[in-house]
Protein backbone atom coordinates (compact mmCIF):
# COMPACT_ATOMS: atom_id res chain seq x y z
CA UNK A 1 0.00 0.00 0.00
CA UNK A 2 0.99 3.61 -0.15
CA UNK A 3 2.47 5.93 2.41
CA UNK A 4 -0.12 7.21 4.91
CA UNK A 5 -1.36 10.65 4.15
CA UNK A 6 -0.31 12.32 7.37
CA UNK A 7 3.35 11.99 6.40
CA UNK A 8 2.68 14.06 3.32
CA UNK A 9 0.67 16.55 5.33
CA UNK A 10 3.52 16.93 7.81
CA UNK A 11 5.99 17.37 4.97
CA UNK A 12 3.72 20.02 3.47
CA UNK A 13 3.59 21.84 6.80
CA UNK A 14 7.39 21.72 7.10
CA UNK A 15 7.83 22.98 3.54
CA UNK A 16 5.35 25.80 4.15
CA UNK A 17 7.20 26.76 7.34
CA UNK A 18 10.56 26.86 5.60
CA UNK A 19 9.08 29.06 2.88
CA UNK A 20 7.51 31.35 5.45
CA UNK A 21 10.75 31.58 7.39
CA UNK A 22 12.62 32.53 4.23
CA UNK A 23 10.00 35.14 3.41
CA UNK A 24 10.44 36.66 6.86
CA UNK A 25 14.24 36.69 7.08
CA UNK A 26 15.46 37.27 3.53
CA UNK A 27 15.78 40.80 2.12
CA UNK A 28 16.30 40.09 -1.55
CA UNK A 29 12.95 40.49 -3.29
CA UNK A 30 13.72 37.74 -5.80
CA UNK A 31 14.53 35.22 -3.06
CA UNK A 32 11.37 36.27 -1.24
CA UNK A 33 9.43 35.43 -4.38
CA UNK A 34 11.07 32.02 -4.49
CA UNK A 35 10.01 31.45 -0.89
CA UNK A 36 6.43 32.29 -1.90
CA UNK A 37 6.76 29.62 -4.58
CA UNK A 38 7.87 27.18 -1.87
CA UNK A 39 4.75 27.97 0.15
CA UNK A 40 2.54 27.50 -2.92
CA UNK A 41 4.18 24.14 -3.53
CA UNK A 42 3.51 23.11 0.04
CA UNK A 43 -0.15 23.96 -0.50
CA UNK A 44 -0.12 21.97 -3.74
CA UNK A 45 1.33 18.96 -1.99
CA UNK A 46 -1.36 19.17 0.66
CA UNK A 47 -4.07 19.44 -1.98
CA UNK A 48 -2.83 16.36 -3.81
CA UNK A 49 -2.56 14.46 -0.53
CA UNK A 50 -6.15 15.26 0.40
CA UNK A 51 -7.21 14.38 -3.13
CA UNK A 52 -5.76 10.91 -2.62
CA UNK A 53 -7.07 10.51 0.93
CA UNK A 54 -10.61 11.55 0.01
CA UNK A 55 -10.47 9.95 -3.45
CA UNK A 56 -11.72 13.21 -4.94
CA UNK A 57 -10.20 14.74 -8.04
CA UNK A 58 -11.20 18.25 -6.94
CA UNK A 59 -7.91 18.63 -5.06
CA UNK A 60 -5.95 18.03 -8.23
CA UNK A 61 -8.11 20.58 -10.06
CA UNK A 62 -7.26 23.11 -7.39
CA UNK A 63 -3.56 22.40 -7.87
CA UNK A 64 -4.10 23.14 -11.53
CA UNK A 65 -5.58 26.54 -10.67
CA UNK A 66 -2.83 27.26 -8.15
CA UNK A 67 -0.30 26.66 -10.93
CA UNK A 68 -2.06 29.22 -13.14
CA UNK A 69 -2.24 31.77 -10.35
CA UNK A 70 1.43 31.20 -9.51
CA UNK A 71 2.45 31.78 -13.12
CA UNK A 72 0.44 35.01 -13.32
CA UNK A 73 1.75 36.16 -9.95
CA UNK A 74 5.37 35.58 -10.96
CA UNK A 75 4.91 37.47 -14.22
CA UNK A 76 3.42 40.52 -12.54
CA UNK A 77 5.76 40.35 -9.53
CA UNK A 78 8.91 40.16 -11.59
CA UNK A 79 7.58 43.00 -13.75
CA UNK A 80 7.26 45.09 -10.61
CA UNK A 81 10.78 44.07 -9.53
CA UNK A 82 12.21 45.14 -12.89
CA UNK A 83 10.31 48.45 -12.75
CA UNK A 84 11.60 49.15 -9.23
CA UNK A 85 15.14 48.17 -10.17
CA UNK A 86 15.14 50.72 -13.00
CA UNK A 87 14.43 53.44 -10.51
CA UNK A 88 16.39 52.43 -7.42
CA UNK A 89 19.10 50.06 -8.77
CA UNK A 90 18.42 47.62 -5.97
CA UNK A 91 16.39 44.48 -5.28
CA UNK A 92 16.59 44.81 -1.51
CA UNK A 93 13.25 45.12 0.20
CA UNK A 94 14.67 47.45 2.85
CA UNK A 95 15.35 50.13 0.25
CA UNK A 96 11.67 50.48 -0.54
CA UNK A 97 10.82 52.89 2.24
CA UNK A 98 9.33 55.64 0.12
CA UNK A 99 5.93 55.35 1.79
CA UNK A 100 7.30 55.16 5.32
CA UNK A 101 5.66 57.76 7.54
CA UNK B 1 -16.02 4.48 0.66
CA UNK B 2 -19.21 6.42 0.81
CA UNK B 3 -19.74 9.24 -1.61
CA UNK B 4 -21.67 11.49 0.74
CA UNK B 5 -21.86 12.25 4.39
CA UNK B 6 -19.36 13.46 6.93
CA UNK B 7 -16.30 11.39 7.62
CA UNK B 8 -14.28 11.74 10.79
CA UNK B 9 -10.82 13.00 9.99
CA UNK B 10 -8.94 10.29 11.89
CA UNK B 11 -10.58 7.56 9.80
CA UNK B 12 -8.93 9.05 6.73
CA UNK B 13 -5.55 8.71 8.34
CA UNK B 14 -5.90 4.98 8.99
CA UNK B 15 -4.42 3.16 6.01
CA UNK B 16 -2.58 -0.07 5.47
CA UNK B 17 1.20 -0.13 6.08
CA UNK B 18 3.31 1.06 3.16
CA UNK B 19 5.64 -1.11 1.12
CA UNK B 20 9.39 -0.71 1.14
CA UNK B 21 9.54 0.87 -2.31
CA UNK B 22 6.98 3.48 -1.33
CA UNK B 23 8.86 4.26 1.85
CA UNK B 24 12.14 4.69 -0.02
CA UNK B 25 10.51 6.87 -2.67
CA UNK B 26 8.85 9.04 -0.08
CA UNK B 27 12.09 9.30 1.91
CA UNK B 28 14.13 10.38 -1.09
CA UNK B 29 11.46 12.78 -2.30
CA UNK B 30 10.98 14.35 1.12
CA UNK B 31 14.73 14.70 1.61
CA UNK B 32 15.10 16.41 -1.76
CA UNK B 33 12.19 18.73 -1.00
CA UNK B 34 13.40 19.78 2.45
CA UNK B 35 17.06 20.16 1.44
CA UNK B 36 16.08 22.24 -1.59
CA UNK B 37 13.82 24.46 0.49
CA UNK B 38 16.55 25.04 3.06
CA UNK B 39 18.94 25.77 0.21
CA UNK B 40 16.60 28.43 -1.16
CA UNK B 41 16.49 30.14 2.21
CA UNK B 42 20.19 30.05 3.10
CA UNK B 43 21.95 30.43 -0.25
CA UNK B 44 23.62 33.80 -0.76
CA UNK B 45 23.57 33.85 -4.52
CA UNK B 46 20.08 34.27 -6.08
CA UNK B 47 21.07 31.95 -8.94
CA UNK B 48 21.88 29.19 -6.46
CA UNK B 49 18.56 29.84 -4.75
CA UNK B 50 16.76 29.43 -8.09
CA UNK B 51 18.56 26.13 -8.75
CA UNK B 52 17.68 24.90 -5.27
CA UNK B 53 14.08 25.84 -6.05
CA UNK B 54 14.26 23.59 -9.12
CA UNK B 55 15.43 20.77 -6.85
CA UNK B 56 12.49 21.27 -4.53
CA UNK B 57 10.07 21.36 -7.45
CA UNK B 58 11.42 18.07 -8.79
CA UNK B 59 11.03 16.52 -5.35
CA UNK B 60 7.43 17.68 -5.18
CA UNK B 61 6.88 16.21 -8.65
CA UNK B 62 8.22 12.87 -7.38
CA UNK B 63 5.77 13.01 -4.49
CA UNK B 64 2.95 13.81 -6.94
CA UNK B 65 3.77 10.68 -8.95
CA UNK B 66 3.93 8.69 -5.74
CA UNK B 67 0.36 9.79 -5.00
CA UNK B 68 -1.01 9.02 -8.44
CA UNK B 69 -1.14 12.59 -9.79
CA UNK B 70 0.91 11.87 -12.90
CA UNK B 71 -0.42 14.72 -15.01
CA UNK B 72 0.21 17.25 -12.28
CA UNK B 73 3.77 15.97 -11.88
CA UNK B 74 4.39 16.56 -15.59
CA UNK B 75 2.80 20.00 -15.41
CA UNK B 76 4.83 20.77 -12.30
CA UNK B 77 8.08 20.05 -14.13
CA UNK B 78 7.06 21.81 -17.33
CA UNK B 79 5.43 24.92 -15.89
CA UNK B 80 7.40 25.45 -12.72
CA UNK B 81 10.87 24.21 -13.58
CA UNK B 82 10.55 25.01 -17.26
CA UNK B 83 8.85 28.39 -17.20
CA UNK B 84 8.71 30.03 -13.78
CA UNK B 85 12.27 29.28 -12.68
CA UNK B 86 13.56 30.21 -16.12
CA UNK B 87 11.71 33.51 -15.73
CA UNK B 88 13.37 33.97 -12.34
CA UNK B 89 16.81 33.26 -13.80
CA UNK B 90 16.10 35.58 -16.73
CA UNK B 91 15.25 38.45 -14.41
CA UNK B 92 18.27 37.73 -12.19
CA UNK B 93 20.60 37.83 -15.19
CA UNK B 94 18.76 40.77 -16.75
CA UNK B 95 19.14 42.91 -13.64
CA UNK B 96 22.69 41.72 -13.03
CA UNK B 97 22.11 40.86 -9.38
CA UNK B 98 23.72 37.42 -9.65
CA UNK B 99 26.36 38.10 -7.07
CA UNK B 100 26.88 37.03 -3.49
CA UNK B 101 25.01 39.02 -0.92
CA UNK B 102 26.02 39.44 2.65
CA UNK B 103 23.62 37.60 4.92
CA UNK B 104 25.43 38.73 8.04
CA UNK B 105 24.20 42.28 8.39
CA UNK B 106 20.85 42.55 10.08
CA UNK B 107 19.26 45.97 10.38
CA UNK B 108 16.52 44.73 12.68
CA UNK B 109 18.12 43.06 15.66
CA UNK B 110 15.43 40.61 16.74
CA UNK B 111 14.06 39.82 13.33
CA UNK B 112 15.60 36.39 12.79
CA UNK B 113 14.99 34.89 16.26
CA UNK B 114 11.48 36.31 16.24
CA UNK B 115 10.76 34.91 12.77
CA UNK B 116 12.14 31.50 13.71
CA UNK B 117 10.13 31.41 16.93
CA UNK B 118 6.98 32.44 15.10
CA UNK B 119 7.43 29.84 12.38
CA UNK B 120 8.25 27.04 14.83
CA UNK B 121 5.22 27.98 16.90
CA UNK B 122 2.98 27.86 13.84
CA UNK B 123 4.44 24.58 12.62
CA UNK B 124 4.07 22.86 15.99
CA UNK B 125 0.53 24.18 16.31
CA UNK B 126 -0.45 22.91 12.87
CA UNK B 127 1.13 19.50 13.48
CA UNK B 128 -0.52 19.14 16.89
CA UNK B 129 -3.88 20.12 15.44
CA UNK B 130 -3.44 17.77 12.51
CA UNK B 131 -2.57 14.75 14.60
CA UNK B 132 -4.58 15.51 17.70
CA UNK B 133 -7.87 16.97 16.57
CA UNK B 134 -10.74 14.83 15.37
CA UNK B 135 -12.44 17.06 12.85
CA UNK B 136 -15.20 16.11 10.53
CA UNK B 137 -14.46 16.88 6.93
CA UNK B 138 -17.03 17.70 4.30
CA UNK B 139 -18.67 15.39 1.81
CA UNK B 140 -16.43 12.54 0.76
CA UNK B 141 -16.40 13.41 -2.93
CA UNK B 142 -17.67 16.48 -4.72
CA UNK B 143 -15.84 16.36 -8.04
CA UNK B 144 -15.75 12.65 -8.80
CA UNK B 145 -13.30 9.97 -7.77
CA UNK B 146 -9.62 10.32 -8.62
CA UNK B 147 -8.37 6.77 -8.45
CA UNK B 148 -8.94 3.77 -10.72
CA UNK B 149 -10.66 5.80 -13.40
CA UNK B 150 -10.92 4.90 -17.06
CA UNK B 151 -8.26 7.01 -18.74
CA UNK B 152 -6.28 7.53 -15.56
CA UNK B 153 -5.89 10.75 -13.63
CA UNK B 154 -5.65 12.80 -16.83
CA UNK B 155 -9.21 11.94 -17.87
CA UNK B 156 -10.54 12.42 -14.35
CA UNK B 157 -8.81 15.78 -14.00
CA UNK B 158 -9.94 16.94 -17.43
CA UNK B 159 -13.53 15.94 -16.73
CA UNK B 160 -13.42 17.76 -13.42
CA UNK B 161 -11.88 20.94 -14.82
CA UNK B 162 -14.24 21.16 -17.78
CA UNK B 163 -17.46 20.30 -15.95
CA UNK B 164 -17.40 20.99 -12.22
CA UNK B 165 -14.80 23.74 -12.36
CA UNK B 166 -15.64 25.18 -15.76
CA UNK B 167 -16.36 28.70 -14.53
CA UNK B 168 -13.11 28.99 -12.51
CA UNK B 169 -11.31 27.66 -15.56
CA UNK B 170 -12.76 30.49 -17.65
CA UNK B 171 -11.76 32.95 -14.95
CA UNK B 172 -8.16 31.77 -15.24
CA UNK B 173 -8.21 32.80 -18.89
CA UNK B 174 -9.16 36.32 -17.85
CA UNK B 175 -6.51 36.20 -15.13
CA UNK B 176 -3.79 35.30 -17.62
CA UNK B 177 -4.85 38.10 -19.96
CA UNK B 178 -4.78 40.55 -17.07
CA UNK B 179 -1.31 39.31 -16.10
CA UNK B 180 -0.01 39.77 -19.63
CA UNK B 181 -1.43 43.29 -19.88
CA UNK B 182 -0.06 44.15 -16.45
CA UNK B 183 3.39 42.87 -17.34
CA UNK B 184 3.40 44.91 -20.55
CA UNK B 185 2.32 48.06 -18.73
CA UNK B 186 4.91 47.53 -16.00
CA UNK B 187 7.73 46.80 -18.41
CA UNK B 188 7.09 49.90 -20.52
CA UNK B 189 9.58 52.67 -19.99
CA UNK B 190 8.02 55.91 -18.77
CA UNK B 191 7.83 58.57 -21.49
CA UNK B 192 7.62 56.25 -24.47
CA UNK B 193 3.88 56.17 -24.69
CA UNK B 194 3.66 56.62 -28.47
CA UNK B 195 5.57 54.84 -31.16
CA UNK B 196 7.04 57.05 -33.89
CA UNK B 197 5.79 55.39 -37.06
CA UNK B 198 8.15 57.41 -39.25
CA UNK B 199 11.00 55.24 -38.03
CA UNK B 200 9.44 52.23 -39.76
CA UNK B 201 9.44 53.86 -43.23
CA UNK B 202 12.62 53.34 -45.18
CA UNK B 203 13.04 56.40 -47.33
CA UNK B 204 15.08 54.44 -49.86
CA UNK B 205 18.22 56.49 -50.35
CA UNK B 206 17.64 58.82 -53.34
CA UNK B 207 13.93 58.21 -53.53
CA UNK B 208 11.47 61.08 -53.24
CA UNK B 209 11.41 62.45 -49.72
CA UNK B 210 8.16 61.94 -47.88
CA UNK B 211 6.14 64.96 -47.00
CA UNK B 212 5.74 66.13 -43.46
CA UNK B 213 2.95 64.01 -42.02
CA UNK B 214 -0.13 66.13 -41.75
CA UNK B 215 -2.19 66.03 -38.56
CA UNK B 216 -4.69 63.23 -38.94
CA UNK B 217 -7.84 65.17 -38.32
CA UNK B 218 -9.79 65.02 -41.59
CA UNK B 219 -10.39 62.13 -43.96
CA UNK B 220 -8.58 64.09 -46.67
CA UNK B 221 -5.51 64.30 -44.47
CA UNK B 222 -5.66 60.59 -43.84
CA UNK B 223 -5.83 59.87 -47.56
CA UNK B 224 -3.00 62.31 -48.22
CA UNK B 225 -0.69 60.80 -45.63
CA UNK B 226 -1.55 57.32 -46.84
CA UNK B 227 -0.59 58.38 -50.36
CA UNK B 228 2.66 59.84 -49.14
CA UNK B 229 3.49 56.56 -47.42
CA UNK B 230 2.59 54.67 -50.59
CA UNK B 231 4.85 57.02 -52.57
CA UNK B 232 7.67 56.41 -50.13
CA UNK B 233 7.27 52.66 -50.39
CA UNK B 234 7.12 52.85 -54.20
CA UNK B 235 10.24 55.02 -54.19
CA UNK B 236 12.00 52.43 -52.10
CA UNK B 237 11.05 49.63 -54.46
CA UNK B 238 11.98 51.59 -57.60
CA UNK B 239 15.21 52.74 -56.01
CA UNK B 240 16.11 49.16 -55.25
CA UNK B 241 15.40 48.18 -58.83
CA UNK B 242 17.41 51.03 -60.35
CA UNK B 243 20.48 50.71 -58.20
CA UNK B 244 21.15 47.06 -57.43
CA UNK B 245 24.91 47.59 -57.14
CA UNK B 246 24.66 50.27 -54.51
CA UNK B 247 22.17 48.24 -52.53
CA UNK B 248 24.49 45.26 -52.41
CA UNK B 249 27.38 47.51 -51.55
CA UNK B 250 25.47 48.93 -48.64
CA UNK B 251 24.58 45.51 -47.35
CA UNK B 252 27.97 43.86 -47.74
CA UNK B 253 30.60 45.01 -45.28
Count of helical stretches of chain B: 9
Task: Determine the CATH topology of the largest domain in chain B.
Answer: Four Helix Bundle (Hemerythrin (Met), subunit A)
CATH architecture designation of the domain at 27-94 in chain A:
Orthogonal Bundle
Oligomer: heterodimer
CATH superfamily of the largest domain in chain B: NADH-ubiquinone/plastoquinone oxidoreductase chain 6, subunit NuoJ
Largest sheet of chain B: 2 strands, antiparallel
State which percent range the strand residues of chain B make up.
under 5%
How many strands of chain B? 2
Global Rg of chain A: 17 Å
| Low-confidence blocks of residues of chain A | none
- Quickly count the helices of chain A: 3
Distance between the termini of chain A: 59 Å
Proportion in β-strands of chain A: under 5%
Class by helix and strand content of chain B?
mainly alpha
SSE pattern of chain B: EHHHHHEHHHH
Q: In CATH's first tier, which class of the largest domain in chain B applies?
A: Mainly Alpha
Structure description:
The complex is a heterodimer of chains A (101) and B (253). Chain A contains three helices and no strands. Chain A has 101 residues and is an all-alpha fold. Chain A has a domain of 68 residues: Helix Hairpins. In chain A, helix 1 runs antiparallel to helix 2 and helix 2 packs antiparallel against helix 3. Chain A is elongated and about 50 Å long. By secondary structure, chain B is mainly alpha-helical. The longest helix of chain B is centred in the N-terminal third of the chain and has 26 residues. Chain B is built from nine helices and two strands, in the order βαααααβαααα. In chain B, 65% of the residues lie in helices and 3% in strands. The chains are: A mainly alpha (101), B mainly alpha (253). Chains A and B meet through helix 1, helix 2 and helix 3 of A and helix 2, helix 3, helix 4, helix 5 and helix 6 of B.
Amino acid sequence: MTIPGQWYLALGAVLFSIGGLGLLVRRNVLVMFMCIELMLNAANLTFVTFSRMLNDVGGQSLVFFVLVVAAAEVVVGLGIVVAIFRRRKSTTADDLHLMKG
Amino acid sequence: MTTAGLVPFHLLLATAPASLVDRITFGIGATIVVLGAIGVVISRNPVHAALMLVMTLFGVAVLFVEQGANFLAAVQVIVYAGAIVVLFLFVIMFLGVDREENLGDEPLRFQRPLAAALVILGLVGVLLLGFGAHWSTGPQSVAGPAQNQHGGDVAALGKSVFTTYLFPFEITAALLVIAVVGAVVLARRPGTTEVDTDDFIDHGGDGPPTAEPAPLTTPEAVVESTESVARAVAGTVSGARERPETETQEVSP
